[in-house]
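Please, structure for the following, as tokens.
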Amino acid sequence: GFMFFSVLIVMLLLCGLRGAQCGTDTFNYWRMAWGTYGGDIPFIYEPLLKFSRCFPLSHVVFCLCMAGLCYVPLMYILNKYSDNKCLSVFLYMATGGLFFLEGFNLAKQSVSLSFVLLAVALYEDRKKLASYISYLFAILFHPFALLLLPLPLLSKIKFSKPRIVIILGLSMFLGIVFSVVLMGDIIEKVTSVVGGSSFYIFNHLSKYSHYNYTYNVSFIGAMSHMLPMVILCLIIYSNQIANNLFYKMLLFGTVILCLNISSLFCERTAAFYTIAVIIAYPNSLKYVTCKQRKRIRYFCIVLLALYIYNMNAMQSLGRSGELATPIPYMSFITSPF
């Protein structure tokens, strides 16, 4: 338990104390704290900004607050609901969404993901009011959390192994062959209905309608994103886990990822479901056979190799100056601007 909390606290501090060039949006968060940010600031940030400005280095305090909002719920969730906390932390770092590294780039989405997972966990515990409050926080931090609205209905679907294989295979086929760009179409239709609304969530969502969502990914690139999640869904399958809500979330997220593989935000949108992997995967181990356990161990090795590859790729981009990446890591002391 001590090691688990220590690792997450270190991750929190790394995220909160990052430098201006460590992550794509970090400098914007600093400018919010300084009061020099030119864009709209979500009202949910106002209490954090007021608190941060009570201290020297307000920009660092603000980033620490955001990191705390991400990691404190995560500590609670993993401590209470995960059967293997260390494996959960590894999956948080190494699975396709790279949730840990994206916390340096997409702070508000990382906070939203933690509150989404907390909402689902509380819903499973039949703590409905607390679940709804947590989900509301998730939406206020990032409008993509609205994608989770169909979950109560989707969770009623019963799954068998053949059905899962067909669904995943068909999703991959449609995503690659027909280049389905669902997210852009959905956002465009929603914003055409609610465009100009003064309601914060709809107003926030409408800014994503200006992106070009088409993303020309190669076949190998598409498979490298899809296959790890598809294989994961299949190798942890058992009759006992098939209708677990966290497993269903992971499955739905993988389908969203496959269908949107040609979309700019494929993993960002799928992440609101695939974040469940950090609970579904560890909790499946008590149900699988010895043969499945061996496959799962090999899969973890492959995930680790992919993680190292991604870290190396990020480091190359960061050192070349092409992108403000989390790797190589820089603190606010070594990268003040």
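DSSP finds 17 helices and no strands in the chain. Residues 290-320 form the longest helix (31 residues).
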